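Q: Sequence in, structure out?
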Amino acid sequence: MTKPIVIKSDDPILKQIKFKVYSYKDKRVAKQFIPNPDEPQTQELQTSWGDTLTIKKGDYLVSDATNPEDAWPVEKEIFEKSHQETAPGTGLFKKISLVSLVPLTIFTEGDPDQLVTVHTLEGQETVPAGKYHLAKGIKGEIWPYPNEKIEANLDEVVY
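A: Exactly. Output:
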């Protein structure tokens, strides 16, 4: 089997790629990770898609409101700049920032089965190129975004 292609947020190729811009239409549930002082200040999380990511004190554990068991960590600063609570105290949020997407297959010469390892802020995620897009956020951070969620969760922004 071929080694995964590795993509990091500082890769020069990312500046040359034309990403499409999307806005979010889904609601999210989020809770801030605030461990007690005598508890570990980081925690390893097993995602529903099989990767292990790290949540640090102050970061948020986020999920789609319709699928709470599918959760992932988001860095505190990014979460607070990109989300707005829909009603105070509910824990329901709307992502207000835009996201940029490009099919991961552009990195694999069109091979949908080629694995790609994306270095996210919370850890590495290895996914098959044909099932994911590469997402780029407000600080240039990157992560794999499932193709199956694009139509349900995002609207393309047309300028």
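The longest helix spans residues 76-82.
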